[in-house]
Amino acid sequence: MKLDVIKLDGGKAGSVDLDEALFGLEPRADILHRVVRWQRNNAQAGTHKVKTRSETSYSTKKIYRQKGTGGARHGDRNAPIFRKGGIYKGPTPRSHGHDLTKKFRKLGLRHALSAKAKAGELVIIDDASSDGKTSALAKQVANLGWKRALVIDGASVNEGFAQAARNIEGLDILPTMGANVYDILKRDTLVITKAGVEALEARLK
């Protein structure tokens, strides 16, 4: 699979051969859904907590005698039946994460890359380097028509480019090891450097 390579200024920089096993698959929504769900569940804090009847601040004294009042039998005011009493079977701190095999996670990343390639939302650039000036990079991004873009660089991100991109809305940059299904699918345009393509092919072989 051949794709043209461009520079940040819009000029052409040759072409690159993309691995069909990474960029030429027929995207499957069920695989992408499972991987995104695994990512989002692992990111969930799970710190929600309610007070049980042993933790609320009322007295533990029986509110009135057991018999003879004509009312229902009650113990103390902490019972869940009363307003501001303890909560019965409410949420407690727990992990929402679940396991997904490494093989399946790699497969999900391949399908995410293929989905972008098939939709025509994949751009290959020569390299992501900048002098650190946000205004210059913002102008280049506007000229290229990138509104919500994710840039995937090689093993490490160019410091000047990362600094320049920091204040540009809708532009994010990640090293190859940070590439993930959720961030790829969330953006309108996926931009990969030539070094990023090589690193992704090595990572997902």
Question: What percentage of amino acids are in beta strands?
Answer: 5-15%
Q: From the alpha-carbon coordinates, what is the Rg to the nearest angstrom?
A: 27 Å
State the share of residues found in helices, binned by percent: 25-40%
Biggest sheet strand line-up:
2-1-3-6-4-5
Which structural class should the secondary elements be placed in?
A: alpha/beta
Q: Mean pLDDT score, rounded?
A: 93
Instruction: Give the topology string: H per helix, E per strand.
Output: EEHHHEHEHEHEH
Biggest beta sheet summary:
6 strands, mixed
Features of this protein?
single chain; 205 residues; alpha/beta; 6-stranded mixed beta sheet; 7 helices; 6 strands; 35% helix
